[in-house]
Specification:
Bound molecules: 5-O-phosphono-beta-D-ribofuranosylamine
CATH superfamily: Formyl transferase, N-terminal domain
Mean pLDDT: 93
Distance between the termini: 22 Å
Helix content: 25-40%
Number of helices: 6
Strand order of the largest sheet: 3-2-1-4-5-6-7
Oligomer: single chain
CATH topology: Rossmann fold
CATH architecture: 3-Layer(aba) Sandwich
Order of helices and strands: EHEHEHEHEHEEHEEE
Length: 220
């Protein structure tokens, strides 16, 4: 079978990227990571990727006069690798609808909340402040509306009275590291379809999408 090529876009630490690399190395994820691309030259994740012999590239947004020219350079860089899937893993630039449209239904993102709750930044603190009893992470297809595309998988955890934004962030991150490789595996195995703004896994609508009282049934 032809290799299933992906590229990963990062801006920082790269722990989700590392989780994907680990799963690929252990043979659980049938993919080839063709390149890791960062918009920040100092992203610590670049060194992690290099250590595994993965191509690393920097397309620094500060080198371009405007968003359009940055995105033109970024998509030229992505397209060199002809990826079937583009994986945003802590990539901290808002992408234009033109850019997103080029990779419709083949660009995914991970977000540290139970979307549609808490789009944007500081999700852990906002969940605590809002008195939420549950929190979690979501993997979704990227659309022009930020953090709002069709949801592939969510993982929920309880918020304890003693939780701080920091403790919650580490608990959610553990879940992120499990669900992101899983979502990529489903995609690579052609098990996902997007229909009318919802994701189907093996033809079944995902239970989390109306997530109130939802039960997480996705384990494999
Ligand atoms: C993660 O919390 C992810 O959900 C969010 O940005 C963070 C990236 O962390 N989009 P890392 O770079 O993968 O460690």
């Amino acid at each position: 079978m032809a290799a299933f090529n992906i590229v990963i876009l990062i801006s920082g630490r790269g722990s989700n990227m590392q989780a994907i690399i680990d799963q690929a190395l252990s043979g659980n994820l049938p993919i080839t990571i063709k390149a890791v691309i960062s918009n920040r030259p100092d992203a610590p994740g670049l060194a992690l990727a290099s250590k595994h012999g993965i191509n690393t590239r920097v397309v620094d947004h500060e080198d371009y006069p405007d968003k359009q020219s940055f995105e033109t350079a970024l998509s030229a860089c992505i397209n060199e690798y002809q990826p079937r899937l583009i994986v945003l893993a802590g990539f901290m630039r808002v992408l234009s609808s033109d850019f997103v449209g080029k990779y419709k239904n083949r660009m995914i993102n991970i977000h540290p909340s139970l979307l549609p709750q808490f789009t944007g930044l500081n999700t852990h603190q906002r969940a605590i402040m809002a008195g939420a009893r549950e929190h979690g992470a979501s993997v979704h297809f990227v659309t022009a509306d930020i953090d709002s595309g069709p949801i592939i998988i969510q993982r929920r955890i309880p918020i304890e009275a003693t939780d701080t934004p920091e403790t919650l962030a580490s608990k959610v991150l553990i879940q992120e590291h499990q669900i992101y490789p899983l979502a990529i595996k489903w995609f690579a195995e052609s098990r996902l379809k997007v229909r009318a703004g919802s994701v189907l896994l093996d033809g079944e609508i995902q239970p989390q999408q109306g997530f109130k009282n939802g039960v997480n049934k996705q384990n494999n």
